[in-house]
Amino acid sequence: MARVRVRSTVVVVGVVIALTHLVALLLDAETLTTVTKALLLPALATFVLVATTRPRSRRVRLTLVALGLSWVGDTAPFAAPDDVAFLVMVGFFLLAQLAYLAVRFRWTFAAGTVLAMFAANLPAWTPWASTGKAMEWVVAGEGDVWRILGISC
């Protein structure tokens, strides 16, 4: 019974944070938006923690890692110098997306796998990067990249 109460409390707190964030966005309240943005993902991660039991599965642990990386992507740019803030944000969101992919497709990241993914896309970005043809190649070659990663589509 206490566990259900804790879960309910976490849900209510998360909903209050989310609604406050939406209202702050509507009112263009920059400081409140920044604060609530920093609280959204920890609230979600807290719900994942209280909604699951120990020992937590690999998927739950990877979800928590992905949520943590997403949170760092949301908050780290505020501490980074202006000229690198965007790169910091994108870098952490990239890592979070890789963790989400690992959750979804149940595969692990070996250095060779990640290097193979980038090697498969390298021809797309080098000769045609400035012509707009690179994205066409990546979309056309997406199945090859997934096969290299060991994921069947």
pLDDT averaged residue by residue: 75
Low-confidence stretches are: 122-153
Order of helices and strands: HHHHHHH
Q: Which band does the percent of strand residues land in?
A: under 5%
User: Biggest sheet: strands, sense, closure?
Assistant: none
What is the CA-atom radius of gyration, in angstroms?
19 Å
Helix/strand class: mainly alpha
Please give the share of residues in helix.
over 70%
Instruction: Say how many strands there are.
Output: 0
Q: CA-to-CA gap between the ends? A: 42 Å
Characterize the overall form: flat
Q: How many distinct helices?
A: 7
Account of the 3D structure:
The chain is 82% helix and 0% strand. The chain is an all-alpha fold. The chain has helices at residues 2-27, 30-51, 58-79, 82-105, 111-125, 133-140, 142-149. Helix 1 packs antiparallel against helix 2 and helix 3 (58-79) packs antiparallel against helix 4.
Helix and strand arrangement:
Elements: H1 2-27, H2 30-51, H3 58-79, H4 82-105, H5 111-125, H6 133-140, H7 142-149
Helix pairs in contact: 1-2, 2-3, 3-4, 5-6, 5-7
Short descriptors:
153 residues; mainly alpha; 82% helix
Quickly describe the structure.
The chain has 153 residues and is mostly helical. The protein is built from seven helices and no strands.
